[in-house]
Amino acid sequence: MTSNLFRALLLIAVAMLVACSGAPRKRVFPPEVRVQELHRQGDAGWSVVWRVSNFSNVPMQLASLDLELRLDGGSWRKISVPSTVKITANSVELLTTDLGADAALSSRLDAMTPSDQLRYELRGQARFSEPSARFDLNYASAVSPAPGLPGVLR
User: What pTM value is reported for the model?
Assistant: First the structure.
């Protein structure tokens, strides 16, 4: 009788453990978008390399970034980054967009010394198609001239 009771309790314990186990939960967290690099294109044109970090434990399909960027306290620039890039779980992707020509920005950046910083603010929205989600973005930081790379700020 004791062995039958032991078997029944063991069977119940195993059944409870099986019922509690399962696949890990899908957790979707807001991404982080920031400036990875700002570099010169031609005479007065500039482009931005965006760093998009996925902190979720599932891959996410980026549909678009609708951003506003302010450099060195200047005016806000609207930037739209259409994309179909898939960012794997807990990973980073880099996207490049053109800022266009800006003589004032070019002269400011040309005058920078290696110890100078260019402050920037970023706000906007990231839209994902898989899983379907929208996240508000707000980030501020600075980039500095990259040693040995003229026309590059990181």
Answer: 0.81
